[in-house]
Amino acid sequence: MENLITLDIGGTNIRAAHVIFGEGGLKIVRKLKQATSPEPIEVVQQLTESILRESTKDIDSVAISVAGIVNPKEGILLKSPNIAKLEGTNFRKLFEERYHLRCIIENDANAAAYGEKVAGAGREFEDFVLLTLGTGIGGGIVINGRLLRVAAEIGHTIISSEGPQCPCGNVGCLETLASATAVIARAISEIENGNQSALRSLYHGNFYKMNAEDIYKAALDGDMLARTVLKDAGKALGIGIANVVNVFSPQAIILTGGMIGAWNIYVEAAIREASRRAFKELISRVKILPSQLGDDAGLTGIAYLASETE
Amino acid sequence: MENLITLDIGGTNIRAAHVIFGEGGLKIVRKLKQATSPEPIEVVQQLTESILRESTKDIDSVAISVAGIVNPKEGILLKSPNIAKLEGTNFRKLFEERYHLRCIIENDANAAAYGEKVAGAGREFEDFVLLTLGTGIGGGIVINGRLLRVAAEIGHTIISSEGPQCPCGNVGCLETLASATAVIARAISEIENGNQSALRSLYHGNFYKMNAEDIYKAALDGDMLARTVLKDAGKALGIGIANVVNVFSPQAIILTGGMIGAWNIYVEAAIREASRRAFKELISRVKILPSQLGDDAGLTGIAYLASETE
User: Fold this and answer.
1) What are the CA-CA distances from residue A205 to residues A44, A103, A180, A226, B180 (Å)?
2) CB of B168 within 8 A of CB of A279?
3) Average pLDDT over residues B218-231
4) What is the rounded end-to-end Cα distance, in angstroms, of chain A?
């Protein structure tokens, strides 16, 4: 298969691309982007139709990377807390019936992991785990050079049985302690509790608007609260990494997402904690390194997955 | 390959077998067993030589299932807290040089998982995880009908970041809260702290000798302490199962080891906890069931792995 549409469906934006495979590998012909809200299924259709209209070649399939738990065999999005309106959608049925397009679907972090494998930081490794560190935490697992087509919801593994409530319904998930959301919530809570921090005067005192980058900048300026919050989140990430290492004995962990901007505080703390906690015989050989493809990893991975799927 | 020696190396015993593959599948010609201590490497050699002496057919390989972290590609036992004297042993080198036998090596729980896949409770599933619930907790993962040849040390994933100290050096590992060792330690500690229990009068008052079966029997007789200890361990196991479900989205979890004797208290508590904690969309389709092969799962699995390895 050589001519396809990719859709990257996230909570904020839906990105579509027209992708062609040629001699030099994958070529992106055209890229579109639209806000996911208020009606994501309409956006999906508008973007698809826009690419179909403009295409001079025959497009025969669509490859979807989506934030949520999928059933790749049936083409269904089972669960997606951030795009609740799409939960239960049978994308395969939709695209086959409406556009006569073959459809494959995969979780966005899984697709990103495979993208890094074929064209990014994972090229030299047979066994690695990718973690997306943003609003939430996602995972993708490559073993023997192949993507494990499992849920890989590493952000929703419990690392602290009595930990904070998670939107998924569980408590103590890795995501509740190590994501950007967790970092912001903790910083706000500390300020509300009267702890001193330069973050208090952000946005003319409306510090509730702070984002993870603000916290990182404050930490670089020496703000102790900001440093502590980032380091503690890093330690929690380190526990998650130790668990991943003890289960998958990978050659590498590839990190991506907005939080890796705080590498020298947050990720460094994670590496120290993981080194203390995982089996020495395993962690000592693991390389921890950043993504090379960034935002294009999902698009790349899902396109290659589609090209390899019968 | 049709004619091989299997070795199942555990902390207490080393079991050897002469195995032949014929039309009807695997046939065990002869079984031997010897205590692991005091010199495990000598026991390994004695058992191997004994089988080689008695064999009328040409044996060309040895397949080793061992309690510990292995490097299957190089044939080395990297780490084995319960058989420390074997740590670092290059089994492939030993068997090739000394006996001119081809050698494959795998972790015991991994081998057991593959045994259940080819001839036991896993036959009807493409994706499942096996957990061995005994003195420690081990894991083996089968995806797409194939064994994932990774560490799979699910017993050494952290589920409680500030939990009890684990012999592995970490704290809060699943094993420290849900294994037979954990159950016994907790019961003894509760009695030492003055809590009432029929367990106190076991072994003429030397309750330090109690085992997990004693606790289960007391629980069946209505002993509240014994029931609480088993249920709490089950809850911890349930957290481990929830994590496994959210990562591997398996069709089944297969449980084996001495602790499944307490199924109606311990495993039932685990199932309830996992159902509360894992994604509903995933846990609702997971079957949780006991091993069919029991102690022979490792032997079976490692023999089949050897027969399929070039």
Assistant:
1) 39, 49, 21, 16, 54
2) yes
3) 97
4) 9
Tens of pLDDT, residue by residue over A169-222, are 999 999 999 999 999 999 999 999 999 999 999 999 999 999 999 999 999 999
Among B153, B161, B242, select the one facing A239 at the smallest CB separation: B161
Residue B2, pLDDT above cutoff 90: no
CA distance A244 to B200: 40
- Comparing A81-85, B134-138, B218-222, the range with the smallest average pLDDT is A81-85
**Chain B residues interacting with chain A (CB cutoff of 8 angstroms):** 69, 78-79, 127, 139, 143-144, 148-154, 156-163, 168-170, 236, 239, 242-243, 246-250, 276-282
What three-state secondary structure class fits A194? coil
Name the phi and psi angles at B112, rounded to 5: -60, -40
| Interval B148-200: pLDDT, tens | 999 999 999 999 999 999 989 999 999 999 999 999 999 999 999 999 999 99
Residues of A in contact with B246 (CB under 8 A): 151, 153-154, 156-157
The residues near B203 (Cβ < 8 Å, ≥ 6 apart) are: B209, B210
Q: What residues of B are in contact with residue A170 (Cβ under 8 Å)?
A: 242, 276-278
φ/ψ bin of A71: left (φ > 0), alpha (ψ from -120 to 50), beta (otherwise) = beta
b/e A37-52 (16+ beta carbons within 10 angstroms → b)? eeebeebbeebbebbe
Model pTM? 0.95
First CA to last CA distance, chain B: 9
Q: Where do the H-state alpha helices sit in B169-259?
A: 175-178, 180-192, 212-220, 224-248
Q: Tell me the β-bridge partners of A104.
A: A63
Residues in chain A with pLDDT values less than 50: 1
